[in-house]
Write a structure and sequence with these properties.
Length: 470
């Protein structure tokens, strides 16, 4: 039997049950449902439908379990019924939209272009070469070489440039750019050509160095713009997205994939708990026909019957590990989610981020007795529905730092305070990182300048000179 949790620190060889459980732990509920369906199709011993021969002539129920076909030398005592899915046989739960992957969105758009297979393969390779921000950070000649050596596609720089131009026409605007300037210009090209957009384009094309250094007087002098024209053009540029790969545009909501929350937060009489929606996951039992085949084979010695018995035994063993792994997964998810709920109870009451405590995987591992890697697998790709929103379990984990009173606060709380400092600053004279250290100290947070710079970058807040307004 598997220990409570998966002790992956051991160097001994993992058992089939451990391997099966590890694989199932990582699956969100929709993928788990598909995995069960696949197992039902591949293993004829398993059955999730009603047994047409499960009643005798007298109408009495006659169930077949592995207990009835136990063999002390082969199959240990084991029951296959899974009864821990809750009261409702098939409760219905809402599904929730999450944005589709960035690459998949681009590939979908590529499918609508009238390209031959050779051109399509080059464009698809370019899409696969984009970084997480949506940029192509490689020179064209390198892409040509990679196409030849990695994909076996012979092409030249001119054709790659042409296919890159196709990708750069996709949404979100700015995708496929090779640097920030090109990214911003692509977005302006796709926008309605108003005077402010045209002036913004001129600034980026002819005065990009002055723009990055905020030399406003030089820009006005060089382009012949007055202060009002410059302000409108700058406002237009600042509204552009420097990282188009970071988020799919809202126009793709109708293509969003659906997720089902693995947990649902419940409140009753002021007490919080959670449930785990079953959502069409079947109960598994041994197919009666194959079980009886094994029983019958014990009293016969014919070669064919022995081969049939060996086949059924193999499938029974596989079924045993699979059903037990499902139980282990259910138990592990329940215990891990309960530990998270207990740890972050004050937050789960109303969703106030200030009540979100610093919490790392080790904290939950210590509470559950599971290995850190097990907790990581549970947390990955799992969601919980609360009365204040849908959240991935990863959301509740964050490092911590001390405030001026020596109390530990979460990095999420620190980032929130930093954002408030920036929002409240004078945009004509924005705070430098050193000044933000002082402002954070006034709010009771001890934060080093390098930490300010790190959090500012994670929040997408530019340097002070980039936040300066006319």
């Amino acid at each position: 039997m598997l220990k409570q949790g998966l002790d992956l620190k051991q160097t001994q060889k993992l058992s089939p049950l451990q391997i099966q459980t590890i694989k199932l732990l990582e699956l969100p509920i929709q993928d788990l449902e598909q995995r069960i369906r696949a197992e039902l199709e591949e293993n004829p011993v398993l059955d999730d439908g009603p047994d047409p021969d499960s009643h005798t002539e007298e109408g009495e129920s006659k169930q077949v379990s592995l207990d009835e076909i136990k063999d002390d030398d082969y199959i240990p005592r084991y029951r296959t019924s899974v009864n821990n899915w809750g009261k409702d046989e098939r409760p219905e739960y809402n599904t929730f939209s999450v944005k589709e992957s960035f690459s998949q969105s681009l590939l979908d758009q590529l499918g609508y272009r009238n390209l031959d297979q050779h051109e399509h393969d080059i464009a698809a390779f370019i899409i696969g070469s984009l970084d997480e921000d949506g940029y192509l950070r490689r020179d064209i000649e390198s892409v040509v070489d990679d196409l030849a050596f990695r994909a076996g596609i012979q092409t030249d720089a001119a054709e790659v440039e042409r296919m890159l131009a196709v990708v750069q026409e996709f949404e979100p605007a700015g995708v496929g750019a090779r640097d920030l300037r090109e990214c911003l210009l692509l977005q302006l090209k796709a926008a309605k050509q108003t005077p402010s957009v045209q002036n913004a384009t001129l600034i980026l094309e002819q005065c990009f160095q002055e723009f990055t250094n905020k030399h406003f007087q030089k820009i006005m002098s060089k382009l012949g713009l007055d202060q009002d024209q410059l302000r409108k053009a700058m406002d237009r540029i600042l509204k552009l997205n420097p990282s188009p790969g970071g988020q799919i545009d809202d126009s793709f909501n109708d293509q969003a994939q659906q997720i089902v929350p693995d947990f649902v937060l419940d409140e009753q009489d002021g007490q919080l708990s959670f449930s785990m929606p079953r959502f069409s996951i079947p109960e598994l039992r041994v197919n009666r026909k194959y079980a009886e085949l094994l029983l019958d084979s014990k009293s016969k010695s014919e070669k064919a019957q022995k081969e049939a018995a060996a086949f059924v035994k193999q499938k029974l063993d596989s079924a045993k590990w699979f059903v037990e792994a499902l139980k282990q997964r259910q138990n592990t998810l329940q215990k891990t989610m309960q530990a998270i709920l207990d740890y972050q109870y004050d937050y789960f009451v109303d969703g106030d981020e200030s009540n979100l405590k610093p919490m790392v995987l080790k904290d939950i591992a210590e509470r559950t007795g599971f290995d850190i890697s097990t907790v990581s697998r549970v947390v990955n790709s799992k969601y919980i529905e609360t009365h204040f929103g849908i959240f991935p379990l990863k959301y509740f984990f964050s490092e911590g730092m001390e405030n001026n009173e020596g109390e530990e606060v979460s990095t999420r709380e620190l980032k929130k305070a930093l954002q408030e400092c920036v929002d409240a600053e004078d945009k004509h004279d924005p705070f430098t990182d050193e000044q933000l250290v002082v402002e954070m100290s006034k709010r009771g947070y001890k934060v080093a300048r390098r930490t300010i710079a790190k959090y500012r970058g994670q929040l997408g807040i530019p340097l002070a000179r980039w936040r300066k307004e006319l």
